[in-house]
Amino acid sequence: MERKLVDFWTQTLSCTLGTVIGIVLTFGTSAWIEYRERQEMERTAALMVIHNLDSFCEDLDEAVKDLQPIDSICFKVLGAKDRLETIPEDTLDMFVNSFLSHSFNTHDQTTETIFSSNIETWKSIDNREFIDLAGNCFSAKKLMVKFQERLEEEKNDLTDLFLKTIAFGDKPPKSVHEKAAAILRSATFCTFIVKQHSFYLYGIKTGQKLLREKTEKCKQMMNVTDEELQEFCKND
Fold this sequence. Notes:
82% helix, 236 residues, mainly alpha, 8 helices, elongated
């Protein structure tokens, strides 16, 4: 009888212990999986933000590279408007052509849209300081996009003005020197050249520097390396 009682309790304890272990393992595994999924979601969200900002910084780099030489040419020609014969013809040609093309800036706003419309995405990032900084960066990016669009709008308006009043005016100039002189006789064009140099180019370079610094700080906060970012871009 005693032997049977011992066996009974042994079997009962074994079953109970097995059940308890099973429950612990089941809930423990589920909790671990959930924890890992949250970590992966946070990492992906952070990489999306930083990749978007990093790409925009590169766009600003290109914008400065494109605008800098045109600005230098325009400022050089403006400074010699009373002695255009001293300016090489190819320089004058580039000066005139800078007012002869319509351009449009397109910026990917997918990431901003995701983070502004889906609060759950922000909740996946467990770093309030990073969220605040990222939000600040997106606001700065939005301002820079509007700044560039304003520049392009003014340039496109000048292209239309050039075509209407100079290229297809009553007495359109034939030589590049005559075209350059006609541009420089217009206060509208001269004002824009000064504005492009002292306002637009300066503003883009300043925004480029500040946003790059903030983006680098975002990387440091989340311990994101350039190598990890490059790998993320490949899989994007």
